[in-house]
Write a structure and sequence with these properties.
Chain lengths: 271, 260
């Protein structure tokens, strides 16, 4: 039996309206990247590719992109290692304070970025500065890693919960060493969860602006910081438009990758 | 392997300890004499109270709006759409999540611009930059965070329950109210954690479309960067901290944390 058709049609219309709400602003940014005039005049007076060349040659945008990618890779790598181990610890071992960890670990995500930012800023100032590590790319990576760990943790933990320990026990019974079991049994089972976590971590780090503001030095600019800095400069507006359009197009990539490499599971993985 | 785990948990502990130290008792950390002056100022001055009330109201409003938009979307995706369309829709909801946050806020800035597309469509009318624009933009930004958990919640709801309800003579409205909502509620609560806390902490989108509107995080940022009064900023930061911890505890009772 189907749902009543009146309800179905109402839901259908509402769903597509919601989807339009999601996409109209994005399409507008794409259109704006080709807009001939420098201001937001609408409708556009004409279309041009000129700004794309300008953006390609923009030194600031390029170096910011490089910084962003380096920071995202660093943070993702740390998050993968630490997030996986934390998930193992919580799932496989019993220890004091185990049940509070699941609440504790979502705090970096649930807390406002500005709180995390201030806390990290103060912590770095008291802990890292005396060690000679100043604010810069390193602190940005550490800052990003704190919330990226959560994403990996969530994904791996969800997978571990579904995976039974008997596979690993069987492997150990058959004489495999702990490392062999991990490499040949556990890791292949975790692969798509790790991939999903890494993808989310990379994406979040790449897009992060608040924590970056508080953990970076003025000469280390990630792409969001660069965009924000140039957002209110009228003569940079066309270049910002193009960068924005590129970022929107690039957003298709991780979703496509996730679907392709890991199946439906990764794309709808846990935030 | 265990020692690495311990090392990680240790560093996590240090991080959180320092986080709480800086935000809670930072009042005395700069002048190195503990006093409650900053906290007292924050919790008694009417300016801060106004901003705090405004911020929490906006956060609740954004949460409700997102739930209202996301609920039928998730319902449709999970229970009405055919399999192919369903997958397409999941991808369609997820993709904007990957588009840069700034770009989306910026998109609304240009949408709402005085001579922008909205005023072109609406014949010169636009809400302009202000509180309304802030609410719209934040609702837009966090919508996918609400849709995905609710969708997952609907996936756990067997369709046969809906059929049973209507077989027993319930109207669609009655089915939604008495069957669907109670079962999907934990998922809505899970989504609301995102929308609520993300709104509380936002100052960038507010700065981009909010005009002169000030939210808590703007005030914190202003105290920290412009006024360079770090202790006061930290004292102010306790407001969203407390609000979110309370909200998390409240939501935990609904079983939302298992759905995050």
């Amino acid at each position: 039996m189907e749902l009543p058709s009146g309800l179905r049609w109402t839901l259908r219309v509402l769903a597509w309206v919601g989807l339009a709400f999601l996409y109209v602003p994005l399409l507008l940014v794409l259109l704006n990247a080709f807009n001939k005039s420098r201001t937001f005049g609408f409708p556009p007076t004409g279309l041009t590719l000129e700004w794309w060349r300008a953006a390609w040659n923009s030194e600031g945008a390029r170096s910011a992109l490089g910084t962003s990618i380096r920071a995202a890779i660093g943070a993702t790598a740390i998050a993968l290692v630490l997030g996986t181990m934390a998930a193992f610890a919580v799932q496989r071992y019993h220890f004091f304070g185990r049940s509070t960890i699941s609440l504790l670990v979502i705090l970096p995500i649930a807390l406002p970025g500005i709180v995390t930012g201030i806390a990290l800023n103060a912590a770095f100032r008291t802990v890292l500065d005396p060690l000679g590590i100043g604010f810069g790319l390193t602190t940005v990576i550490i800052g990003h890693a704190t919330f990226c760990i959560v994403l990996v943790f969530n994904n791996v933990q969800a997978r571990l919960r579904r995976m039974s320990g008997s596979l690993e026990e069987a492997s150990a019974d058959l004489g495999a060493t702990g490392w062999q079991t991990f490499r040949m049994v556990t890791l292949p089972n975790l692969r798509s969860a790790l991939f999903a976590g890494a993808l989310l971590a990379f994406g979040l780090s790449f897009d992060e602006i608040v924590v970056t503001t508080f953990t970076s030095s003025p000469d280390v600019q990630t792409l969001p910081i660069w965009i924000f800095g140039n957002l209110f400069r009228p003569n940079q507006a066309p270049v910002v438009n193009v960068v924005a359009a590129v970022l929107i197009i690039a957003a298709v990539l991780p979703v496509w990758l996730a679907l392709r490499l890991a199946g439906d599971d990764a794309a709808s993985s846990r935030l | 392997m265990l020692w690495l785990v311990v090392a990680y948990l240790g560093s996590l502990g240090v991080l959180f300890a320092s986080a709480f130290w800086t935000t809670d008792s930072f009042t005395g950390a700069v002048v190195h004499s503990y006093s409650f002056d900053n906290l007292r100022e924050v919790y008694t001055q009417s300016l801060y109270r106004t901003v705090a009330v405004r911020t929490i109201s906006v956060a609740l409003l954004v949460t409700v709006l997102d739930a209202l938009i996301a609920f039928p979307m998730a319902f449709y995706m999970s229970k009405v759409a055919r399999r192919g369309i369903r997958q397409l829709l999941v991808v369609a909801v997820l993709t904007p999540l990957w588009a840069s946050y700034l770009v989306k806020a910026y998109a609304w800035r240009s949408l709402l611009a005085p001579h922008g597309p909205l005023s072109w469509v609406a014949g010169g009318y636009t809400p302009g930059y202000g509180l309304a624009a802030t609410v719209i933009t934040l609702t837009y930004l966090w919508l996918p965070y609400m849709v995905i958990p609710i969708y997952a919640g609907f996936e756990r709801l067997p369709k046969s329950l809906l059929e049973a309800s209507s077989d027993l003579g319930a109207s669609p409205y009655r089915t939604i109210r008495s069957v669907v909502l109670p079962m999907v509620f934990p998922a809505i609560a899970a989504g609301s954690i995102f929308t609520f806390s993300l709104t509380l902490g936002d100052y960038i989108a507010v700065g981009i479309v909010g005009g002169k509107t000030q939210m808590l995080a703007n005030v914190i940022y202003g105290q920290l960067v412009t006024a360079n009064n770090q202790p006061l900023a930290a004292a102010l930061a306790t407001i969203p901290l407390i609000a979110i911890v309370l909200y998390l505890l409240l939501m935990r009772r609904t079983g939302a944390l298992e759905n995050v």
